[in-house]
């Protein structure tokens, strides 16, 4: 299957005329300057040379955890929380642009920069929280992949969870491969997800007026504690902590020309890559919520919070037998694409904070075991129909950990001694500090609600 996806990705890349540049190992210890950017070529070709890292980051914004929060929000509140998805996507763009800027200018990823500028105790704390974020993300991927196996092949959920351990074979198969090959696979998977949801939206016939109303920010809609809880889950599912570490590392796979002009061009091209990729991710997330609103909420099914129930209801409600199958295929592609980026992010965090290097497959085994155990425990306690609630919980946990990655990112990219002439401009710092303040406020409200304060 993955060979076909790789071929599909390469075909898409050829259609887009992506340059066939030098490559880096799948899990590199050093990724600087491995993709050459030809100096004498068209602006489009130069942009395509820089394109790719944004796509790897974007897949983390459309993983199974996003599906659970968006389905629950759309089925219960219709189009009402669509503005949360859109605002979260904008916030993610600002933060990922900062992360990319750090990597391009300082030639350090976020974890390495923290180790270089913060005390050891602070770094150990940040590392622990980052690892928790990786595990929470992987739990969502495990549950999503298990659900995809059940929806496509009828396997019991527990066996689906066990089968997810075989993704180690994927990681081993990519050993020694280049980033361009990984990016081609991701491009194929993301294209599959996007096409599936284009067809789903066509079949569900959403309300244009409802979409426009839902896209208009209205904090009054968050007065319902359930709406606020789901909104926080959407934020955690959209702005994922490990993606900030990941992005600041993988942008260094592009060789930046020496000098002020070369760095500025790299920042500009990478910013365009980030925005374009996250617009695609925002479309997928918005499409999931819109699909749930038009297919479930509009027909009186306001309690759909489980991905399995969503798939079962799609075909009869849309009148198209293919709707449920498309949904399951997109879910499988979503979970598998997130596996790649989660593995790379885990390596970046471990090497950056602790300067410990282990083989990529060992990192994958450790992370997956730490995810499978709580996933099986959650299914045992809550049952198979509690998977939706488990997925939302993982995303809320990500939101609670997010400020601990955002704080050092904003502080470090604002330091002239580190960033020089490429220090984040004041308007960008103000925007990201606003995002940080909103995250803290929302997380405090959720914690007060959870503890009954």
> What fraction of residues sit in β-strands?
under 5%
Task: Describe the sheet with the most strands.
Answer: none
Helix segment tally: 21
End-to-end Cα distance: 50 Å
Mean pLDDT over all positions: 78
CATH topology: Amino acid/polyamine transporter I
For the CA atoms, what is the radius of gyration?
Answer: 21 Å
CATH class: Mainly Alpha
The succession of helices and strands, N to C, reads HHHHHHHHHHHHHHHHHHHHH
Q: Give the overall silhouette.
A: globular
Q: Helical residue percent?
A: over 70%
**CATH-level-2 architecture:** Up-down Bundle
Runs with pLDDT <50, length 5+? 5-26, 28-33
Number of domains: 1
What structural class do helix, strand and pairing data support? mainly alpha
State the CATH superfamily name.
Amino acid/polyamine transporter I
Number of DSSP strands?
0
Q: Could you explain how this protein is built, in words?
A:
By secondary structure, this protein is mostly helical. The protein has one domain: Amino acid/polyamine transporter I. Helices cover about 75% and strands about 0% of the residues. α4 (about 65-75) packs across α14 (about 260-295) and α6 (about 110-115) packs parallel to α16 (about 320-355). The longest helix has about 35 residues, at about 260-295. Residues about 5-25 and about 30-35 have low confidence and may be disordered.
Please sum up the structure shown:
This protein has a single domain (2-18, 43-450), classed as Amino acid/polyamine transporter I, CATH 1.20.1740.10. The protein is 75% helix and 0% strand. It contains 21 helices and no strands.
């Amino acid at each position: 299957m993955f060979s076909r996806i790789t071929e599909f990705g390469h075909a898409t890349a050829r259609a887009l005329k992506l340059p066939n540049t030098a490559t880096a190992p799948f899990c590199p210890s050093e990724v600087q300057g491995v993709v050459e950017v030809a100096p004498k070529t068209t602006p489009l070709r130069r942009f395509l040379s820089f394109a790719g890292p944004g796509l790897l980051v974007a897949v983390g914004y459309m993983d199974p955890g996003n599906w659970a929060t968006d389905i629950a929000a759309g089925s219960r509140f219709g189009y009402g929380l669509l503005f949360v998805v859109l605002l979260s996507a904008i916030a993610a763009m600002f933060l990922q642009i900062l992360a990319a800027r750090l990597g391009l200018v300082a030639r350090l990823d976020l974890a390495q920069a923290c180790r270089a500028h913060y005390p050891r105790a602070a770094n150990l704390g940040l590392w622990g929280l980052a690892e928790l974020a990786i595990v929470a993300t992987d739990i969502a991927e495990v549950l999503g992949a298990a659900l995809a196996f059940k929806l496509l092949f009828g396997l019991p959920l527990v066996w689906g969870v066990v089968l997810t351990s075989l993704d180690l074979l994927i990681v081993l198969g990519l050993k020694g491969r280049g980033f361009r090959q990984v990016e081609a696979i991701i491009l194929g998977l993301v294209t599959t997800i996007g096409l599936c949801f284009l067809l789903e939206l066509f079949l569900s016939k959403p309300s244009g007026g409802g979409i426009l109303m839902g896209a208009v920010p209205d904090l009054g809609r968050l007065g319902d504690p359930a709406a606020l809880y789901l909104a926080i889950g959407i934020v955690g599912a959209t702005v994922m902590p490990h993606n900030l570490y990941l992005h600041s590392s993988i942008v260094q796979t592009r060789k930046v020309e020496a000098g002020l002009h070369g760095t500025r061009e790299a920042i500009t091209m990478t910013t365009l890559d980030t925005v374009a990729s996250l617009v695609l991710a925002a479309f997928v997330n918005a499409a999931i919520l819109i699909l749930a609103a038009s297919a479930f909420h509009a027909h009186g099914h306001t309690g759909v919070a489980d991905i399995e129930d969503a798939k079962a209801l799609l075909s009869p409600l849309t009148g198209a037998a293919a709707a449920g199958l498309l949904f399951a295929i997109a879910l499988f592609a979503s979970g598998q694409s997130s596996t790649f980026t989660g593995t790379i992010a885990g390596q970046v965090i471990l090497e950056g904070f602790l300067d410990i290097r282990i083989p990529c497959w060992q990192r994958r085994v450790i992370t997956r075991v730490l995810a499978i155990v709580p996933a099986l425990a959650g299914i045992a306690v809550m049952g198979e129909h509690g998977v939706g609630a488990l997925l939302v919980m993982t995303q809320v946990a990500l939101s609670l950990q997010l400020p601990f990655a955002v704080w050092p990112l904003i502080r470090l990219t604002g330091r002239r001694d580190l960033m020089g002439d490429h220090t984040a401009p004041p308007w960008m710092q103000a925007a990201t500090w606003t995002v940080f303040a909103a995250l803290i406020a929302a997380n405090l409200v959720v914690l007060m609600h959870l503890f009954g304060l």
